[in-house]
Design goal:
Layout: E1 4-5, H1 7-20, E2 25-33, E3 37-45, E4 53-57, E5 60-64, H2 66-72, E6 76-82, E7 85-91, E8 97-98, E9 105-106
Parallel strand pairs: 1-6, 2-5
Antiparallel strand pairs: 2-3, 4-5, 6-7, 8-9
């Protein structure tokens, strides 16, 4: 079981945490929503919860709750820039289908 970041994603997270002046890592999870059923949640974590699964990737701690891990195990998080757009992209091997807008997925 693992969640990984690409080097560009890790650099972006490290820069953002440094600018915030606090944080222990990145919290990744899923919630029920959208037209396909599930959506990713992504936030900067200031504490490690006792139940968190912890992964280290390119010097960044990635925290995941056990319920979310079932749906995102093996996911690689990338940070890309395409023209004026930039953001995180999820490469989740568990995804069976995504909605047309790209906001939600099913496993």
């Amino acid at each position: 079981m693992a969640i990984t970041l690409t080097e560009p994603a890790a650099k972006h997270v490290q820069k953002f945490i440094a600018n915030r002046g606090k944080g222990v890592g990145l919290r990744l999870g899923v919630k029920t929503t959208g037209c396909s059923g599930m959506a990713y949640t992504l936030e900067f974590a200031d504490v490690v919860n006792p139940e968190d699964m912890s992964f280290e990737s390119h010097g960044v701690k990635v925290l995941v709750d056990p319920k979310s891990l079932v749906y995102i195990d093996g996911t690689e998080l990338d940070f890309t820039r395409e023209g004026l757009n930039e953001g995180f992209k999820f490469k989740n091997p568990n995804v069976k289908d995504e909605c047309g807008c790209g906001e939600s997925f099913t496993v």
